[in-house]
Amino acid sequence: MIKTDQLIDQIAKHSVPFKETQDLKPLINKASNAKYVLLGEASHGTSEFYTVRAEISKKLIKEHGFSFIAVEGDWPACYEVNRYIKGMTSDYTSAEDVLKKSFNRWPSWMWANREMIDLIEWLRSYNEQLEGHKVGFYGIDVYSLWESMEAIVDYFKKINSPEIEKALNAIECFEPFQRKAEQYGISAAFYGEDCMSEVMELLQTIQQNRKMYEEDPEAALSLKINAIAASNAEHYYHTMVTNDSESWNIRDRHMAEALHYIGSYYGANAKGIVWEHNTHIGDARATDMASEGMVNVGQLTREQYGEENVYAVGFGSYEGTVIAAERWGDPAKVMPVPKGASGSWESVVHKAGATNKFIMFNDENKQYFQDIIGHRAIGVVYHPQFEHHGNYVPTRLSDRYDAFIHIDQTKALSPLGKS
């Protein structure tokens, strides 16, 4: 086992300081060889994680031909952003407008924030120069049960589909639960009162009649993802009250499945960028998640596409501020992020030099970063005063990621309006 002083020395030796995007060129060039570049974050409320990922994404799109960005967000809301950047709608006057109107479900600050505005406007401007497939922006999370079913109904109405009744039946089944996922989960898990058969019938109908929707390929993609989101969300909420680990697996398998469909839509040679929390993009097998039978997008994509075709970049910081809430559903507020705990990854990276830096793990240095060390993870619910009791994930860094970006001092995200 490597000693702390030796680990600090190895970080200092193998890390590269950076001040601007151009300094990240070696990492971006290496990542560009992959089919999927997974860009993480240590929290859902840190400004620099968003801005640095945005600049990396621009480079991958403009200089290396990447086709889309898939994020840890709901498909229906993100699809409105996709429509805006592709010029498919006149419903929105600006990036700020589409973000404010589309992201209404808590925690809305994850995507309805000022840091996203520049990227969304850049994507719209970039797409105006393209012919054929334009760069897309999609949400691959599983939570949008009601929103996805409503999107299916709206699409069926638009095309006068004869299957509209099946979609309405599925929505009607969920109406007694008043969009309260926990209420549905308890009813389904403990009382056998669920809507599984209605959702499955709708999904099967869409799959069987998929050729009916081929006239508009992107609308067909949206219908397909909304259908699997509704089905997997029902399964997720059905499971979450009785089995945390399995509901996690349902969620991450859904995200990997949605990513596959998006990649297929763009073609065999398509390359995509994924924005998600470190806990999703960093290989679960390099953490204590594996001992609990949990998988994640980082593991699943490596297994499906080959390790050489996936490049996972973790993000972290030493101290600063963050946007989060004290309880699920509470208003967000700016909270302090304490200095990294003694002996943690955040602490030793800081001690190797109080500056922004990145490390690319390779055959030359990988061995030095394979000992288990605590690595901070902050969720949408956060209690800084208690973070030492549950916010550090035991991690083998060079197995979990292909590279790591450390931003020494960070500040909170800037939400648009109420969150």
From TrEMBL:
- Note the SUPFAM superfamilies from the entry: EreA/ChaN-like
Q: Name one GO biological process term.
A: response to antibiotic
So where does this one cross the membrane?
A: none
Recorded hits in PANTHER family, A to Z, give: ESTERASE, PUTATIVE (AFU_ORTHOLOGUE AFUA_1G05850)-RELATED (PTHR31299:SF0)
Q: What is this protein called?
A: Erythromycin esterase family protein
Species per Swiss-Prot/TrEMBL record: Anaerobacillus alkaliphilus
